[in-house]
Predict the structure.
Amino acid sequence: MNASEQLVEKTIPQHVAIIMDGNGRWAKKKGKIRTFGHQSAVKAVRASVSYALKNGVQVLTLFAFSSENWNRPAEEVGVLMSLFNMVLGSEVKKLHKNKVRLKIIGDTSRFDSKLADKIHQAEVLTEKNDSLVLNIAANYGGRWDIVNATKALLVKVQAGELAIADINEESFTSETSTAGLPAVDLMIRTGGEQRISNFLLWQTAYAELFFSDTFWPDFNEDCFQTAVDAFADRQRRFGKTSEQVT
Ligand code: IPE
Ligand code: IPE
Ligand code: MG
């Protein structure tokens, strides 16, 4: 490994998770309806994927729809679902060309069968791609993920495939929706709120948090770079003292 590769390894987060927030307020500020904000969010998604590809981020996890977002007005939920459907259709080809592996994480059982099929096809198509793992969290909840992993472990215990003594952080992680992927290094939230909103709870145990006042539709590669620069300036201690890690 040469010096510049070492530098990349040190400063570029392997796994970045983004809470893409602020679409509604962005639209309102422009005198438009909330759903205009969602439609305008696609550009920022493309920019963040492009940044991740160019800069060697290995995993990008985007929060698109939370398990709590079903509580929004039916009309807005409808627009979000059809937008998700449309974007899946329009973007997959390009993602595949760029060797992006697409995964939808969340409880997809609540989606209609047409959307579920489309998700499955996109995942199978891009399965072997290795330039970037792009997780789209849809109908995702961090608590759901934890409960789901717990159930999967219990099924194995019940079948006699796993001993209770073998339940540990590693085997638990392997049943979560991000199994096989590194934990989140950097979690970004746009839109000014400073909360997790039931996003990746298990996976962000030691993530660096970065909050931006930028509304998601205005997020671009420069904004991503600002967050990565802030990340590079942090000292991750993982419980140790500052002297131990320098
Ligand atoms: C994030 O933007 C998108 C989703 C939650 C689907 P919002 O729609 O939450 O935008 P604000 O927070 O109301 O501005
Ligand atoms: C979190 O944003 C979910 C997504 C960005 C998809 P919300 O706007 O739903 O979060 P709260 O409700 O303000 O915490
Ligand atoms: Mg919001």
User: Anything to note?
Assistant: The chain has ten helices and six strands. Residues 74-97 form the longest helix (24 residues).
